């Protein structure tokens, strides 16, 4: 079921420990030369919409949280950063209001890494109040499921999934610009955002995104937007959905917090 489609009384009648909240969230931010600004929240939203079909009585899907934590991307127009304290306050409020109604289990389906500290905080709140929260970062899960499904930020992985979900939002032929990464020195290689490789080990050297990447894409070897392909995107999405359905069934059996 979907929270937005129920009346308050309808929700009250079903809200309880057996009903799990599925919370899609992401970010509104630059995604390289061809990825839409809504990439990070659209993919989790679609995953949750599909997962609901598997268990419509056991899951309640929340409206998507479209803004997240991305201060480093604000040099690219259209990026909206709300910061960790604001996102954590929003997510903790969602958890506390749902707990008041009787919900105890929360699965956050996340599309953006910068959000994780804020989601950690909301999950800690849930646990302390007798609930349990899980965070599923889809882009890292799919890489674990199949290394060929991995990718970086704003590269072919995300663009491929967006091409599968919303073909009319991605204009590869018109918008593609070849990627270029700016390392600090030949020995300080920028590998993933602030992550910098030096003699086989990684340190973080903080710079805004536009300082180390021309197009906004970074982090994926073999993840150039030139390789974005809807068939690959559909395969990644379906692989993630299959895993998510199985995980949610198992998470429903996990003991709750104190
Ligand atoms: Zn993204």
Notes on the structure:
With 258 residues, the protein is α/β, with parallel strands linked by helices. It has a single domain, classed as Rossmann fold (3-Layer(aba) Sandwich). 40% of the residues lie in helices and 13% in strands. The strands form 2 sheets. It has a 4-stranded parallel beta sheet, sandwiched between helices. Strands 5-6-7 form a 3-stranded antiparallel beta sheet, with no helix packed on it. Strand 5 and strand 6 form a beta hairpin. Helix 2 crosses helix 6, helix 2 crosses helix 9 and helix 3 packs parallel to helix 4. The radius of gyration is 19 Å and the shape is globular. The relative contact order is 0.18. The model has no long low-confidence stretch (mean pLDDT 97). The chain binds zinc ion. Zinc ion binds next to helix 2.
CATH top level assignment:
Alpha Beta
Number of domain modules: 1
Strand order of the largest sheet: 2-1-3-4
* DSSP helical segment count: 9
Note poorly predicted spans.
none
Report the major sheet.
4 strands, parallel
- The CATH topology comes to Rossmann fold
SSE series: HEHEHEHEHHHEEEHH
Tell me the number of strands.
7
Gross morphology is: globular
What's the CATH architecture?
A: 3-Layer(aba) Sandwich
